[in-house]
Amino acid sequence: DAGVIQSPRHEVTEMGQEVTLRCKPISGHNSLFWYRQTMMRGLELLIYFNNNVPIDDSGMPEDRFSAKMPNASFSTLKIQPSEPRDSAVYFCAVLKSNPGTGELFFGEGSRLTVL
Amino acid sequence: QQQVKQSPQSLIVQKGGISIINCAYENTAFDYFPWYQQFPGKGPALLIAIRPDVSEKKEGRFTISFNKSAKQFSLHIMDSQPGDSATYFCAFRTGGGADGLTFGKGTHLIIQP
Question: Best interface-test mutation with B: which of A34, A55, A104 has the largest number of B CBs within 10 A?
Fold first, then answer.
């Protein structure tokens, strides 16, 4: 059964610091997505991977943001340097590969606060 | 640019009433229209979904109504319960689905006991 574990659940950091958010999808997927949620902008797609390959990163707001997926079981989203406007909840989600229902399974999110 | 407009932003309904949330879209290439439900501190989770070849889909107290000509779809929650209090998102995707979903801005629903 597809599931997603994100860490840390909460992160408070100071402006200028590097932030790394982690995602561990459990199994049964071939696509992984990073979303950002804010009150003003809702849920925004930042980047997604198919078979561990980045396909579309047009949603990544700036060069300060980068994402990697070294294998099917792990992905990271890095912000360097962080800014107060990056404060948001970041979600990782996966799409089941077979059968392809189209359903996205989300993790519980990483709440980032940049002071 | 905003490809889907969700309304209302917030909604208060009395217990036992009907909650209605609407979404209007622009791109006729969309082939899948799900609704996601999100509780505080949790990620969104699929509630119910419809494809454009069907005008209505019902699952328990939840119904999606789809109007292809008007490019609108709506979520109806019958006999609304306090446990339905959550944020609801409409979403859409274009063909294939491997490129994920685009979400509406969300509706914060409160069911008053």
Answer: A104
